[in-house]
């Protein structure tokens, strides 16, 4: 498998290519090209000029040049380092002299400060005494407050005990009132049921009385109808006979 050119586009939008060997090892990398056309032109120029390219070995000359440059640069650096160390030593001596003078001045300044500090400590002790007296007075007031709190706590405990004692009484009173109400409701329900049953019994009695009167009146009505029919039958027959007698001579006169 021969070598190949791999063309890539970077994050900035520029194009680069690398020359990879048969094993995938990168043999050469190109610079950034602004567009794809320029990258392809660079690849074509490399392919064209790669076969006739010569080797220019500058490794030996670079090492000698590096040694000479290091020697030239080392000499002034050593001189500058010596100067800096001497300057540092003189500056250190000056700083020590300044420190001793500063210590003397601080000692002179500290004397009145110490006297003032002693006065302030005396004042602080007086203040501490006053604060201690105030604290004792505050403790006494706190003791009084605690005693008052204890008395209030006792009162609240007494109230709670009375409330606890009154609670079962109230519950019993509520139960009795509820039981009385339920009993009154039951009695009213019983009374209403008794009234309804009594009304039903009276209505049933009235209906049975009506039925019995109807049964008793039925044969009487039938007997009355029979007697009226019997009485009316001879009357109707007599009327028919009289009408027939009256009509007989008229018929004879018309025939003659």
Protein architecture, described:
With 256 residues, this protein is mainly alpha-helical. The protein has a domain at 1-47: 2-Layer Sandwich (Double Stranded RNA Binding Domain), CATH 3.30.160. Helices cover 82% and strands 6% of the residues. The chain has helices at residues 36-49, 59-255, and strands spanning 4-9, 15-20, 26-29. A 3-stranded antiparallel β-sheet has the order 1-2-3, covered by helices on one side. A hairpin with a 5-residue loop joins strand 1 (4-9) and strand 2. The chain starts with a strand and ends with a helix. The model has no long low-confidence stretch (mean pLDDT 81).
Shape: elongated
Mean pLDDT metric: 81
Side-by-side strand order of the widest sheet: 1-2-3
Number of extended strands: 3
Which percent band covers the strand fraction? 5-15%
Report the CATH topology name of one domain.
Double Stranded RNA Binding Domain
- Assign the CATH architecture of one domain: 2-Layer Sandwich
Poorly predicted segments? none
Radius of gyration: 73 Å
The separation of the N and C termini measures 169 Å
Give the H and E element order.
EEEHH
Question: Helix content range of the residues, please?
Answer: over 70%
SS class: mainly alpha
Under CATH at level 1, the class of one domain stands as Alpha Beta
Sheet with most strands: 3 strands, antiparallel
Q: What's the tally of helices?
A: 2
Task: Give a quick rundown of the structure.
With 256 residues, the chain is mainly alpha-helical. It has 2 helices and 3 strands, in the order βββαα.
